[in-house]
Amino acid sequence: MKQHLVSMNDLCTDEIMDILNLAKSFANGDHWSPNEKTFVANLFFEPSTRTKTSFEVAERKLGLDIVPFESGSSSLLKGESLYDTVKTLESIGIDVAVIRHEQDHYYDELIHKVNLKIINGGDGCGQHPTQSLLDLYTIKEEFGSFEGLKVAIVGDLQHSRVAKSNRDALTALGAEVVFSGPSEWFIDSEADTKCNFNIDEVVETVDVLMLLRIQHERHFSLTAISADQYHQKFGLTEERERRMKKSSIIMHPAPVNRNVEIADSLVECERSRIFKQMENGVYVRMAVLRKLLEQ
Amino acid sequence: MKQHLVSMNDLCTDEIMDILNLAKSFANGDHWSPNEKTFVANLFFEPSTRTKTSFEVAERKLGLDIVPFESGSSSLLKGESLYDTVKTLESIGIDVAVIRHEQDHYYDELIHKVNLKIINGGDGCGQHPTQSLLDLYTIKEEFGSFEGLKVAIVGDLQHSRVAKSNRDALTALGAEVVFSGPSEWFIDSEADTKCNFNIDEVVETVDVLMLLRIQHERHFSLTAISADQYHQKFGLTEERERRMKKSSIIMHPAPVNRNVEIADSLVECERSRIFKQMENGVYVRMAVLRKLLEQ
Amino acid sequence: MKQHLVSMNDLCTDEIMDILNLAKSFANGDHWSPNEKTFVANLFFEPSTRTKTSFEVAERKLGLDIVPFESGSSSLLKGESLYDTVKTLESIGIDVAVIRHEQDHYYDELIHKVNLKIINGGDGCGQHPTQSLLDLYTIKEEFGSFEGLKVAIVGDLQHSRVAKSNRDALTALGAEVVFSGPSEWFIDSEADTKCNFNIDEVVETVDVLMLLRIQHERHFSLTAISADQYHQKFGLTEERERRMKKSSIIMHPAPVNRNVEIADSLVECERSRIFKQMENGVYVRMAVLRKLLEQ
């Protein structure tokens, strides 16, 4: 493992599988704590319930000492830079900083200059590696392996922090990945041509239907199409769900826009793993923290 | 005990007495902790010092793991509902959620659909059961029992979260309850007629003078009457306090509007139990948490 | 030691040395915890990263229980006074309150009326005793003693919380202190005349160059002079740093305005102790907390 985990590109396939196996052991009740008092700070510059709370629980389960940090009452208000803030935390004794920040690649100015360990909890429209890992973990738990699985990633591919890294990782692990959704939200034109599928075809053939959140909060405007039109054209309606294979599952990083990406009635349906993903996130984050701290 | 404590109506008289006795044992220094690591989150959507801090101390004394939650930096900003937020916390491993919310009966959409335990820390102008319980505890500590006590509840009955439930509980436990204050703030006309007393009569006869806070922050406007006029007409002035019985006590849920509900000089007078109530709140909340967790 | 530490004037020279020695033992890895569960709350009414995080780490290293307090979601929003807030925390069981507040001498209304212990984390343009102590500790660690040292305090003396108390303490401990900076920011005219030195002279003779932050956030406007002009006229430029004595050090309480008080390239230069000061702050705060709790 590298010193930091800021992108799925930091991990080779073996390291990914290693983290998933370690997460499994934590899910089975294994305990691990560092030998020395270890301080962690969670710096969230964007709203978060799932990721922040999940890290907070994972950290407590590992017996780490968590030092609260609120950007809105920090010296960032006095104009202090992110670099000086992180360097300050390091000087005061923080060992790990989990950071979510609205700026793409915020970590570029940090990773070669700080001694503490950084876990990226989401950067702009960039990466969100622990979300990718919990997605992979959820699929592996369900199907045992990735070989031969067909996974569709559906929706706002362009603004997603996981669409591209999930595609890359799943492909490397032996799955076939297709995309679906509005073509103006696709990642790049080459992939589009190859992977663009209609949701009506996709639902009948995939093992995993991975819906993406429409990122209203990223100033994305749905002018061309209403929420209801999106649901009818690209979303998972009750009718489409009925046509899914018996064993196939539904995933979504949440928060869900009910009746947009997915019908309200399906959020907690039998094949939905949406809340299971959140549970799995804790084990995956425990695994990542342990890997970084054991170096 | 039910799964949740959202209203005093969730408790029968025996359960109330049981909680008060358990609170007493905690006040005497008894210790108790759950056998398993237990996670709690305090979701306060309205300002709070007393209730939130009191729960935080009670939880720490019981050895619970507290996961911070700030509504202002949560995914509620992305439009996530309270239900999805609580369900998320449950999925991540939270066992108990203490919730204060501005909406009356916010818990109706939660209580039959979540597996974690909810303690209502105040809903709109609805209920605030741990405040009621600490009021009862404070009275019991003072007088040994409720039989034959005369209690006056004074002030903004309509917007109070405890006036009605305290009346019901105290009456069931054998006390006599009367109301006093501006008639337009009374709860219902029948009770008004029966229980409306002038503050000048009331102070001379009651054992407990329970003042209520004027809820400025609930957009209540005092247009018809100034703060000073309220104090002279309905408040506890120094002159009125001198006419109270030797053994009678003053209570107030706080924060106090000094020189409105009560003269500034009386807030910490000998018969005031206002800060004692806050101390007692910790023991009562320890008792409630233990009862819910031991189920 | 007094009950509270609100000002450096609360400490005699012996007590200062005692705290510095205790801090040294913590830096060397000594452990100490109170015998009883001890609750502390950090009340920061002004932005802070360093001081708040430093106290949070120090408190955790001492095994204290920290109860979170956010002024922006407290009952201060309902008009509750600072006194009633602190008295509430005391009633609920808080043993120590660390307070930063924008009002000079906010503590005057508290110190004789509360039973918990108060540590001043900064009041307006008043005092910030733990910052002074960490400054002293950093100098002592560097030079062994204060006798015969020459220390220059440079910059916005008037709005600084440490300029005056550092001058007084350093002088009492045997050091010589001079000031430098814009004359309109000097503390009082007598001291000005005696101690006003040009930065170009100062850099060549001092052992310690203690730069002060320009307090933009205190509504101080630099109308008469731009940031760049300040840097050229009063700041530590690369050219000036080259003329410093070999063994002399640079200090700054931070956050640094890079290229204003000090050239960007010098913030982490070999003779800079700016991040070392932050590390030292943890040990000094552990020492202060222990001294207050052991009384």
TrEMBL record, chains A, B, C:
Carbamoyl phosphate binds at residues 50-51, 100, 128, 131, 254-255. Pathway: Pyrimidine metabolism; UMP biosynthesis via de novo pathway; (S)-dihydroorotate from bicarbonate: step 2/3. Transmembrane segments: none annotated. InterPro entries: Asp/Orn_carbamoyltranf_P-bd, Asp/Orn_carbamoylTrfase, Asp/Orn_carbamoylTrfase_sf, Asp_carbamoyltransf, Asp_carbamoyltransf_Asp/Orn-bd. GO terms for molecular function: amino acid binding; aspartate carbamoyltransferase activity. Keywords: Pyrimidine biosynthesis, Transferase. It catalyses: carbamoyl phosphate + L-aspartate = N-carbamoyl-L-aspartate + phosphate + H(+). Residues 3-141 form the Aspartate/ornithine carbamoyltransferase carbamoyl-P binding domain. Coiled coil: none annotated. Its EC number is 2.1.3.2. It holds the Pfam family OTCace_N. The keyword ATP-binding does not apply. One of its GO terms (biological process) is 'de novo' UMP biosynthetic process. GO terms for cellular component: cytosol. Residues 147-290 form the Aspartate/ornithine carbamoyltransferase Asp/Orn-binding domain. L-aspartate binds at residues 78, 161, 213. Catalyzes the condensation of carbamoyl phosphate and aspartate to form carbamoyl aspartate and inorganic phosphate, the committed step in the de novo pyrimidine nucleotide biosynthesis pathway. Heterododecamer (2C3:3R2) of six catalytic PyrB chains organized as two trimers (C3), and six regulatory PyrI chains organized as three dimers (R2). Belongs to the aspartate/ornithine carbamoyltransferase superfamily. ATCase family. This is Aspartate carbamoyltransferase. It comes from Lederbergia citri.
